[in-house]
Design brief:
The protein is mainly α.
Length: about 400
């Protein structure tokens, strides 16, 4: 029964999921090489971290604009434009002779990096409310599967023959550009437009900046959901940045074992989202599932530095890999169900901006906390995640019957 319901999703959904997977592989190719590539340009640790900030800040500025444009001009053309930007940015990064050009490439990739929120708007267009949580869960699982394939391809790319002007690390950017090109071709050839009605786009300066985000935060219908996205993303990014030096320096492991941990994240996340999410939402409220999984995540963050043992770490990382796959698709589902069809792109774009802010602030926060000790940011992330779980519980009073299944 479960399998039949899953594969009753529209064909367009599976096309979008395939595009998301291909794009995810291209994105995660870069994660293992960005820091050493920055060091090869002579950047210090702080300057190298600014590459992530530049990307996230640019994405924060541009994603709501792309989302709103997709509400007016259509999903497909904006998705294609976004993918083209990724292709060009990664080609420039692979050939960059100077550090400033590498920064320019990351900014370009961020400015055109709203393809995930546009793809989510497509899913909202083509699914009815009863399917939506399941669809977002599968979409998130396919994206997460890219986190398994991406690091592996990144390693293989560094062993490929290099063309003139490209280093072995730069090959990772070229392969990433190739993956984005494949996603673009799939979009052009297989995906038809899903927006039922287009409108005229009128640009205003209100479409930019923190003022728009601040206004959306106090939106009585959606503001608390946006804040839940930020808090969930911020606490996770603190952990994601801080656990690497903790793993290498406190647990005394090497980079190969670290890659294995990332693979565990991806595999467990894919399996649980694909097979477990829909079963849970048939029995429990979306908000209850979100609150419980965040609370468990917070406990794991607190336990890791408290018991710095390798065996205990891997036991906790397995539990973390399972429950960590739930928060973002659940928040996306709640947000989608609370918004109207004609504002899906705009709303999901604003939500992606909150996630981009967390990606920009999280590494810097973790970097400052690491100076106090490798365990400190994990403890802080744990406490903040418990606060996030309490905050998410507040959504329950507003959820109503639309957020309940079964």
């Amino acid at each position: 029964m479960q399998s039949k319901e899953t594969f009753n999703l529209p064909l367009k959904f599976w096309i979008v999921a395939l595009i998301a997977f291909t794009n995810s592989v291209g994105y995660t190719l870069i994660i293992p090489i960005l820091y050493p590539y920055a060091k090869a340009f002579g950047l210090n640790d702080f300057e190298a971290s600014l590459l992530t900030t530049a990307y996230a800040a640019s994405q924060f500025i541009a994603t709501p604009i792309l989302g709103r444009l997709s509400d007016c001009w259509g999903r497909k053309p904006l998705l294609v434009i976004s993918l083209i930007g990724t292709v060009l940015a990664n080609i420039v990064a692979s050939l960059a002779p100077f550090a400033w050009l590498l920064f320019a490439a990351r900014i370009l990739d961020g400015l055109t990096g709203g393809n995930t929120s546009i793809a989510q708007a497509v899913i909202s267009d083509i699914t009815h409310p009863a399917q939506r949580t399941k669809a977002f869960g599968i979409f998130g699982a396919t994206f997460r599967l890219g986190f398994v394939a991406g690091p592996t391809l990144s390693y293989l790319a560094q062993n490929l023959p290099t063309p003139p002007g490209v280093s072995s690390l730069g090959m990772g950017f070229l392969v990433s550009a190739a993956m984005a090109s494949i996603a673009m071709v799939l979009c052009l050839c297989l995906l038809s437009e899903t927006l039922p009605q287009r409108c005229e786009f009128q640009f205003t300066w209100r479409d930019f900046g923190l003022n728009k985000v601040a206004q959306s935060a106090v939106n009585p219908r959606l503001g608390r959901i946006f804040m839940a996205t930020f808090l969930s993303g911020f606490t996770f990014i603190i952990f994601a940045f801080a656990f690497q030096p903790f793993f290498l320096n406190v647990l005394h492991q090497d980079a190969k074992t670290l890659a294995l941990v990332f693979a565990i994240f991806g595999v467990l996340g894919f399996i649980t989202q694909f097979f477990a999410l829909d079963r849970l939402i048939q029995r429990f409220s979306l908000v209850n599932i979100l609150t419980v999984t965040l609370a468990i995540r917070g406990i794991i963050f607190l336990l890791m530095p408290t018991f710095p043992d390798l065996l205990a770490f891997f036991f906790m990382i397995v539990i973390f890999g399972v429950i960590n796959s739930f928060p973002l698709p659940l928040i996306d589902s709640i947000l989608s169900l609370k918004s109207q069809q004609q504002e899906q792109g705009k709303v999901l774009g604003v939500n992606a901006s909150y996630l981009s802010i967390s990606k920009a602030l999280g590494p810097a926060t973790a970097g400052m906390l690491v100076s106090l000790g490798y365990q400190t940011p994990l403890w802080v992330a744990g406490v903040l995640t418990w606060f996030t779980a309490w905050f998410a519980l507040g959504l329950r009073s507003r959820e109503g019957p639309r957020f309940r299944r079964g």
